[in-house]
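Lab notebook, page 48
Experiment: co-folding of the full assembly
Goal: obtain a model of how the components sit together before planning crosslinking
Operator: M.T.
Materials (sequences as entered):
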Amino acid sequence: MIGEEFANILARAQRGDEAAFASLWLDVNPALVKYLRVVAREVDEEDIAAETWVTVVKGLARFRGDEMAWRAWVFTTARRRGIDEGRRRTRRRAALESHVAELAAPGRLVPPDPALVVLERMDTQAALALVAQLSPLQAEVIALRVIAGLDVEAVARLVGRTPGAVRVAAHRGLRRLAQILARQGVTL
Amino acid sequence: MANFLRSLSGGRPFQGDEHLEDLLSGQPLPENADAELHGVNELLTALRSAPADPVERPGQARALDAYRETFATSDPAHQRRRRPAMIGTLIGAKLGAALAAGAVGFGGIAVAAAAGVLPDAAQNLAHTTFNAPAAGSHGKSADHIKTADTTKATPVGPDATAEGHAAFGLCTAWTHAKDSGKAAEKSIAFRNLATAAGSQDGIAAYCLTVAKPSVDGTESDTAGKPDTAGKSGVTPGKPDTAGKSNVVPGTPPVKP
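Observation: model returned without errors.
Model output:
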């Protein structure tokens, strides 16, 4: 996140300063693409991210809010875009599970323990694939909190749940992730 | 560990519960936290790290195109106001780089020649030696730059190529020097770069829009406004860090 400079950079971007807008894009887009990979696997997340920015740019001059509100707005726009693309979670989950299975395939990874190797190779893609094994709500809530950096209240507004429900979903998701790692025999 | 594993199966609170919010908000885990939580923490850290995914560059170009369409082209007066100043400051920065930033010798002359600001005799020598603009081509060069910028074409020729190399080179030098603090503050070239960027603090963001010129000059930045933002290695924010903002939450966004 940008932090203290955000208000200044946003104001410049709203006045037509392209470099300032590039800073905003550079700060948010990597997280945006990762979020879309979790919630909209079967569609082209790069494409949705780009369409999201087109929409954001159109409303940029009228946006008012701090950095948390800014991120919440961008991710809300992306979420709507993803839904508009008609994504289906069952297909997404199937694709992600297939991806995880491929990552953990005995012939693919270095023995002895595929799961251990998955953890050792815990790059962003593997981590995204593991999160996608969670329920859709748990996966999205964790993605929004961890990847997008949104607080509980912002996530609750975004997904249309209460803050309490968001906390419960996130905690259960983390427990589930710990369970997955433990069941796969991972020790640290 | 036993408590932790029992809690997983029963869904009851377990010892690590108190640390879950820390995990979610990117706070460091205490060393005495359950080992399993450290595993989850590693996973979340991987989630936060930026993907090494070059395919996002086209997305950046699309976003910038949309931005230009919405802001730049809808305010041509803004373009007219800004362009001459930026071109002038860039040329000044290039000359400063040649004269004051230790760019003595062929390299410094090359920068000045590329900008087309050497005396005519020297400029013509540079023109025949390494394809710098010919003497007396300043006005033509400026016109070319202006036209190329507003039409978003990919200019070909020594003028635009030199412009891209100079701006990119200054940004690259600044990236390497900024950590020391002294160079960025004292160098005339870097002060000019700050002028081109609008302010000292604006250099990083400005350099984000300066594309790395191609070797053959078929794709270059003309006046710090590339079709695709260049790789500068300067990241004002932390794209891969999803930590909590220290900005106090304020008014909810107005839905555009």
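Interpretation: The longest helix of chain B spans residues 76-100.
Next step: discuss with group before ordering constructs.
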